[in-house]
Amino acid sequence: MSNEITIKIDGVEYKTQEGEYILNAARANNIFVPAICYLTRCSPTLACRICLVEADGKRVYACNAKAKDGMEVTTSTEEILEERRAIMEVYDVNHPLQCGVCDQSGECELQNYTLELAVDSQSYMIPDTKRESVDWSSILHYDAGLCIVCERCVTVCKDMMGDAAIKTGPRGGEKLGKELKDSMPKDAYAMWNKLQKSVIIPSNGTAETNCSDCGECIAVCPVGALVSRDFVYTTNAWDLKRIPATCAHCSSGCQIYYETKPASIEDNTEKIFRVTNEWNYVSLCGAGRFGYDFENRVNGKDEIAFNNAVDALTKADTIRFNSLISNEEALMLQTLKEKYGKKLVNSDAYAFQKFLKYYGKPSGHLLYGSDFKEIMTTDFVISVGASLRNDNPNARYAFNNIQKMNKGAGLYFHPIADSLIADMGKNVVSFTHKVGLEEAALYLILDLFADKEKLEESTKSYLDSFHFTETITIKEKVMETVTETVVDEATGESKEVSKKVPKMVEKEVEVERNSLVTLLGGNDKFAETFEKMMKKKESFSLIVGEDLYYHPKAENLAHLVALIEKSCNMKVAMIPPKTNSLGVALLCELDEKVEGYTVGYNENGDFRLSALGDGDLDMPAMNQQEGTLTNMHKRVTPTNAALEYEGYELNDLMNALECGELLTIDWTPRLASKRGFQALAFDDLPNGYTNEGQENRGYLLKNLGRRSGKNEPKPFSEKFVIEGEIAYRCNPQRQFNDFSDKAHQIFETFSLSASTAKAKALGEKVEVDFGKSTLLFDVVADERMEGDIVSIPDFKSANDIYTLFGSDRYKTVTIRKV
Amino acid sequence: MSLEEFKNRNTGQQSYKMLDIKHTPQSGIGKFGQVVERTVKGELFVGLWVTLREMGNALFKDNMHTIKYPLEKLPISPRYRAIHDMLRLLESGHYRCIGCGLCEKICISDCIKMDTKYDENQRKEVTEYTINFGRCIFCGYCAEVCPELAIVHGGRYETASEQRASFSLFEDMLTPIDALKQQKEYDGFGAVSPNADDTIKQTPLAY
Lengths: 818, 207
Ligand code: SF4
Ligand code: SF4
Ligand code: SF4
Ligand code: SF4
Ligand code: SF4
Ligand code: FES
Prior knowledge:
Number of strands of chain B: 4
Bound molecules: iron/sulfur cluster, FE2/S2 (inorganic) cluster
Oligomer: heterodimer
Shape of chain B: elongated
Number of helices of chain A: 25
CATH architecture of the largest domain in chain B: 2-Layer Sandwich
């Protein structure tokens, strides 16, 4: 890379990137610098000050000092060590001696650094303050007594999640004595001074965080102060077996570890106790972290059911499934199609597959050009057609992280305003447009960002047609010189004095306007705001969501997206609707409609294969099988079986149908028969991160090119704008599918969500009439939603919400109170 | 005997003494004569005399050299490592175990298991604790590692029973609450040494 620089750490030369923090440069080169409060991918807070190093003779904090070419860094000197030791002594002041029961059970950074810095005596003391342990939500348990106020939880919640649900609050502790200031090392004093004043509290002023319950704060806590309520005091970390895996709930496909041990003395079956992650490099959501116990327990192989299933599959015309399956399983189903001509129906991947096809033609490649990791490095991000908060946690984290870390700006186009997104940064502008105007949104983006040279004449003039100038009167402050005659009281002389006074004048100015802004519900002042947002911005990105795939104008939208990618120098990534929708879209040829005798795999059907335990033949759930998943970062990642499964697998059925392999994972290298995949054996797939933070999981899909055509998107029409009572197919946070629903720590119910005002108007229970059928729902108020559109979840496959919505994501419905 | 003598295997030169033993009779008469002689000689009672004397002592003088097991048992050394005891705090009667799991971790035969939970008093409660005595090798590591002197080896060495499980649960090992007064401090494996007071260092505080 061009901006590679050389720095010297402890006398040895290393290469790093310009602008990299010293700490990260050291870590990438396997050099240890103690650091407690710093989190990779979040802003440095300087709470702990232990990362003190010397750079070119000056004391700096490694976590927030940037490396410069030729810099010489010394990681420890006698003075620095003394300072660090004092810091650790201070951290140990009044820390309760309950390591024996603490849930950190030895994986504790406070213990580690205390030993590392050889703290063997205590020089400081202060009376202790009683600090209670409290529950912040149905998930979070905070023990203020153990908290060392490193603020990592606060940082991650703000910079990564975007909830900013917690902050430091008053501790009520005694003040530090004045004499300490002069007598102790100054960084240790500064750190103690802050520590002694603070504990962590919910930032909304109540006792409850009322947040996304993602549990990332728990993951980053270096001590046992934050633990999930379910996990508190149930086991020691060292008793747990870590199984590297990929989260099965959404298309983000996060790296996770299932941590298991036998359930109890009475029950010796292996059980998942918690899920952990490499939190420096990946952030989970609540579904991934807490929705882990969805396994399908069976007692052995049910031969009769198996034979029935073989018969059913032989007889079947259609196999209906969803994208909660591995790539290997998807390939198996596709093999059934190729060999026996079965129809394959998958509601979530079908629209996405079509959209990718529409997109592929003008763009010239199979897949969207960028991914969410890359998007996170840009400084201007736009989201269209995604309910960011609910659809995909990591797309939302990227949107937020850009605001917080890259001094970024964001545009959020969605029919339902979301206060969480709006609050992510002061440079976030939300367009709450009417349903059906997604094309207009893309045209506006094109107009705002495109390099007009690259556009076809027709498109250019089409865009120009929205421009108009308006004469508006603005009030302007001008300085006016007024001359007054004043009489000097002493002498009686009169004098002329002139002075400047401000005056408001009205002025007429011509401003350029864009009618698309108004159409999309934008503010009059958008042009001015936009100018400010664009300041110092260099890289741009676009997140495309599910609304565009389920859209009557999906084709045109896909063409527009391709055009934006080409002409706006914009990185584009799409959110696949469900866990492995991308894998399924690439591996299977899908059909639109269910026909004839149907075998459902985790879906409704005449014969049901199910990993939910309620089907005609049991299948293993995702935490019970090996295989790979394709995530939205276009990466094929391996996942392992955390729990045993004794029943039949899809591969067994394949064998009975004479097209199986010995093991499911023998299908992994066979994926290469489909475009983009590689012929790698399952056991050769890595699953981890390097010290530099490089993702080393599975492999990246190749984004193969294809013949591209001319791209002249059609003008948008307002024909598809829908109004009235509208339902939106959208799940609550932390709830993605039947499996997250099965987990005992995911409490979100299958209810209709609405903004607080709308929920109040609707009452407790409603009947939603979809025309063809009606469904009863409880109403849940979602404080962060705004407007009148209500959300209907689709996570229960038995309710077949996809069919009710058809090829759209929004639907006009009639809602009746009951 | 010196080493040289010991190593000298030349028996001929050594001073062996030959016993004056009669030759074993060969004839029928001779053999019969030997039997008669041995029968009437009363040699048996020479040997039995000590036994009979001790029996008399035991029965009539209450002076016995053996233990009337199982009515009587010998005191055993505190260092003996028999079935574990779980001790209680003398003041409150609460069990001492804090559920830290160190014994479970250190156990060399992996035979300790415990269940814990968060209780109403915000403490770690041990809901169940068990040692599989079919696997325990009575090494004493668990007692040694316990930071609370909660698990100790007791003196209960009779481990025959219909089911091992009948003494391997928490409540089986725990001092019965009504026997708290009789609970003895343990001075065996892992206990504080008798001179602990002399060797203990104060927490090094600079203030
Ligand atoms: S709860 Fe944990 S992460 Fe948060 S400030 Fe306290 S010690 Fe740090
Ligand atoms: S659970 Fe997630 S959203 Fe809630 S406070 Fe913790 S980090 Fe923030
Ligand atoms: S549900 Fe999605 S975002 Fe959440 S942990 Fe799983 S893969 Fe990551
Ligand atoms: S005595 Fe040894 S083998 Fe027996 S339970 Fe204790 S540690 Fe395990
Ligand atoms: S080591 Fe002692 S305190 Fe810890 S669990 Fe075992 S018996 Fe209980
Ligand atoms: S890690 Fe740098 S100040 Fe805490």
